[in-house]
Amino acid sequence: MHPAAPPRRLVAVLAGLSCLLLPLLGHLPKASAAEYADQARTTANGGPGPGSPAPGIRAAGPGAMAAAPYEYLGWGDPQKPTDVMAATGVKWFTLAFVLSDGTCNPKWDGDRPLTGGSDQKAIDSIRAAGGDIVVSVGGWSGDKLGEKCTSATALAGAYQKVINAYRLKALDIDIEDTEFSKATVRQRVVDALKIVKNANPGIVTYVTMGTTPTGPDATGKDLIKRGAAAGLDNDGWVVMPFDFGGHSGTMGAATVSALDGLKAAVRSAYGYGDDDAYRHIGVSSMNGKTDEPDETVTTTDFRTILGYAQQHHIARFAFWSVNRDRACGSGSDGDTCSGVSQSPYDFTEIVVQYKG
Prior knowledge:
By secondary structure, the protein is of the alpha/beta class. The chain contains 12 helices and 11 strands. The longest helix has 20 residues, at 251-270. The two termini are 31 Å apart. Mean pLDDT is 87; it is low at 1-7 and 9-62.
């Protein structure tokens, strides 16, 4: 991603500037912060590399990671994650974004190392405070691993480096722009995720993409169908219900419509019943003003989404982003605030109510 550019679907440029774990996993213990740090040092010093499963992955219990808002530590005047935890009770964050460094090699924003830097310090602090992270790979801007890695095996190896660096329990592939639009790359991502799932028993995977107000477009449906055809047991197909380019009604209602369409697409592709289909979908909304002048996502809309999530036990309720979960001050840009009147963390405090 380009550091000067909004990272997610032209996040808040134009307007105001842009888990489900399978129940069979049960409640398993978390590793301590020290264990995570030890594993990160092991990887940095030549420990298990790409293609090797991260040792000792311990999946959290159902619902533990279902509410994990995005925070982008490389952009938007990020708050200290531990301050957000103390203020809201949130335990999980989705940290964005891991990109290609120009080759088939993952780095934060394409230029910061996975281990030993400020990102690892933030992750260590989250875990020391009793929380944990999902790492998001992709976004709108920058060089994508799905394109720079020329085979599914190579791409799986790049994902594995990220998993090993932090002994991840969950990985989010935010597939957008050219990575999303190219059929060969969509297939590569699906096949790579299947390799990762097989190599790391218990890891949770999400695939996050854009949507229309009635559900995934033809490209999104194709991606889901490819996943089903490949036998990818993906935990959550997740849509970003904003930047529609036109919608009717409230953004909460448009989100519900998009999720219903997503559920139908997942049900059709995988042959699930309704309950299983709901449990394999998710939402990543956006708080406040989006890129579109006719879109404002309010706290009332978030409560509508929360009610839908609680009714259907969807895989994920996230949003973009913690960085923006505060009112704008004089001279503030849309990458650091929501563009609506609010108290700090009003949106996070709704999302954290979701328990899976």
